[in-house]
Amino acid sequence: MPHFTTKQGALFYCYAIDVEQTAKIDKFLKILEDSGVAEIIDRVFVEKDFGRPGLNPYLLFAAIVYGFAFGSPTLRELETSCAYDVRFMYITNGVQPDHSSFSRFINKVIKPYTDEIFSKVTKAYLKFCQITNEECHIDGTKFEARPNKYKVVWKPTTFHTKLCGKVRTLLKNLSLDASVPDNDIFPSILIANKLHEAEDLPRPENIKECKILDTKLENLEGYLFKALEYEEKEAICGVNRNSYYKTDHDATAMCLKEDYYSGLGSNLHAAYQMQTVVSHGFVVSYYVSQDRTDVYTFIPTLNRFHEMYGCYPKRITADAGYGCKDNYKFCRDNNIEAFIKYQNWTGEASGRRPTTYELQPDGLIKCVNGIIGQRVELKDRHHKIKNGSFFRVICPKNCPFMTYCRRYMKELTGSEKIFEVDTEYQKLKQEARDRLLSPKGIEMRINRSCQIEGVYGIEKYNMSYGRIRRVGISRVKTEYMLTILGLNTRKLFRVFDGRTNLNYWKAPEGLQPEKFKKPSAKRLTARVLKKKTAQPNEIAKNSYKNKYKSTKSKGCQ
Prior knowledge:
- The chain is α+β, with helices and mostly antiparallel strands.
- The chain is built from 19 helices and 13 strands.
- Among the domains are: about 20-110, no CATH class; about 155-240; about 355-425, no CATH class; about 520-555.
């Protein structure tokens, strides 16, 4: 039975509607029909034989998706568009839903089945365009949340530790410090039990001592209420967060590039981290996170992709914010060809910060000057890197890279340099570097910059989506899903018009792999020495301090 394509026919419409626009909307409704999203709507809406006939839920869903795509992302704007925009009138068949109808539909249908709806509709879009999502690009951005930036609450771990220290001292004075941990934050139930024990203590006969005991009991009671407050705040923050906001407990304090209110520089605001996976200009997956950085969101985002499509992408591209050992291992274990930059990629590519060593196939390392380092065991030195190994490199006296290689060493004497290397991580980084420098890596990097950054540009500027309108991570997730679904719909209508090219740049045959710029020992040495040279204001400041010290010492004599 058709759902989206069943419309009441009319010889003449009371409003002027373009024939070409009607044909594109009919194509859009046909794709929604083939997507199978009507099955999800049927789970919620059951036909009733009593009461007034309700609004058509299928056309209501089509109006919401079309509204988020073309400039009506709020409920009031959707209501106005259905009343005055002929395109929405054609979709809803002349019916004018109220904003509350849209709200109930979103909360009742879309919110419980957010991922399933997005997966079905996006698959239908990709099938119509005859494209696959084997090659994907991932990136993240932060959107400011609805709460005021001054309503932040920080995780009181430090204050809780100090409070436990005060409680521990007070219980020691009362001789009730048994079973109290020495160096740990103990729960409030322990303080409550100790308070009951303190109340049962015998009252001293001296009035002064009675007042002192009452004061201690009052202080212990105050500590109990404060501990309960700290535990509540820590429970809201959870393990992986250090802040939340009073009007939105799921929002986290993050440093944004631009202030939403004034357009000034970076500042801490309530925000959410949005991860987006793009393929051929379409958003194929997403992930709403409370993390402030991208590195910990890579694996959950790909797992969300696997839940939607039943497989991982064959190739994935990401910037240096995702370059870590766990992400490289995850891609290797799941047969994903990862084109992920690491932290020092830009420095190595430009020759400004070349790597000081490189892992060899035989398990040894070679320094930047080409000298082979041998693996050694040092009993008097602790490992700073997990699963790290020590390597000793014997440096010649006239090594041109000695100043750069030993820039972080306090003592520059001696003819050897000890490197601590995580050989597994170094091997993964070098494999990622070789993939990035290959012709396919060049192609993936170029396509990533125009696809993923283009998506965020359309969201923030073309669709005017600069700030989250809803509160709570579940509602924020629904809102962002509708936003990117609207973005995909905009892309689909451009395909209808023939104004977009789904075939992005391909590496030509015979393209040679890219190579890093050869580092210059002279420039590296000059740059290191320049950083170590004190600035004029620092010289003046130190001279003033020395002058003040000398004057003070003469006065003391």
